[in-house]
Design a protein that fits this description.
Elements lengths: L26 E2 L11 E2 L3 E2 L4 E2 L11 H19 L4 E4 L2 E4 L5 E2 L2 H13 L1 H6 L8 E4 L6 E4 L3 E4 L12 H13 L7 H14 L2 H13 L12
Parallel strand pairs: 2-9, 8-10
Antiparallel strand pairs: 1-7, 3-4, 5-6, 9-10
């Protein structure tokens, strides 16, 4: 099992300089249902005219299930952190997890994305993805997905808070955009998500996700994680 590089290992909950502010308007750090990766549709690109699926000239997404399984464990730990269990033991280290943002509405996601895109760390990661991201409401409450060239579609029910309006779900879709891989979850995608997680949630959360990737035998282009 290949563990994340040592630069992702930290034992304290410190943000350091830069990064996205933790509390955009319309957001809250509150409890949310765990295990949401099955609802994230990174392997289908939906546009205004047609939907592209696996088998229609689409590259094989061989590690998608393993990526989702690792992210589900990660989100479950972040849910537990919001409930008070913030310190976890991972790969011989004791890590204090951050409080993941929960967004109250789509406008809060849009405001958060604007701050993310203005961050110099994001600019470096997204040099190959200059198109600003847009957010739209998705019909139906069971899936979220990314639409090339730059739209995130999230379910937003009229009453209550959608399961998808949380930081890690949005980051997953942003990673598809930045990595330039709307259809697959390969090593470039996973490295991009780890880099974005470190930028927004902090090195502790990124380290824990990297360990779960390693445990699930998920391939990561580790050379792309570091800025």
């Amino acid at each position: 099992m290949q563990l994340p590089p040592t630069e992702l290992r930290h034992r304290h909950d410190r943000r350091g300089g830069g990064g996205v502010p933790r509390q955009p308007p319309g957001s809250e750090e509150a409890a949310h249902p765990p295990s949401v990766s099955a609802r994230i549709r990174g392997a289908a690109v939906e546009g205004p005219h047609r939907r592209v699926r696996q088998g229609e000239g689409v590259p094989r997404d061989s590690q998608r299930a393993r990526v989702y399984a690792a992210e589900d464990v990660w989100r479950a730990q972040l849910d537990a952190a919001r409930a008070g269990a913030r310190e976890v033991a991972v790969a011989g280290s004791r890590v204090v997890l951050p409080l993941e943002l929960i967004f109250g509405e789509l406008d809060a996601v849009r405001a958060w994305l604007q701050r993310l895109e203005a961050d110099p760390g994001y600019a470096g990661a997204a040099a190959a993805a200059p198109i600003p991201l847009a957010v739209r409401a998705r019909r139906g409450g069971t899936k979220a997905h990314y639409e090339a060239p730059g739209t995130i579609a999230l379910p937003a029910p009229e009453h209550g808070t959608a399961w998808a309006l949380r930081e890690t779900v949005v980051l997953h879709e942003v990673a598809h955009h930045v990595a330039g891989s709307p259809l697959t979850h390969g090593p470039h995608f996973t490295a991009t998500l780890l880099r974005l997680a470190r930028l927004t949630l902090g090195p502790e959360a990124a380290f824990v996700l990297g360990v779960h990737y390693a445990t699930a035998e998920v391939s990561v282009a580790w050379g792309r994680v570091a800025p």
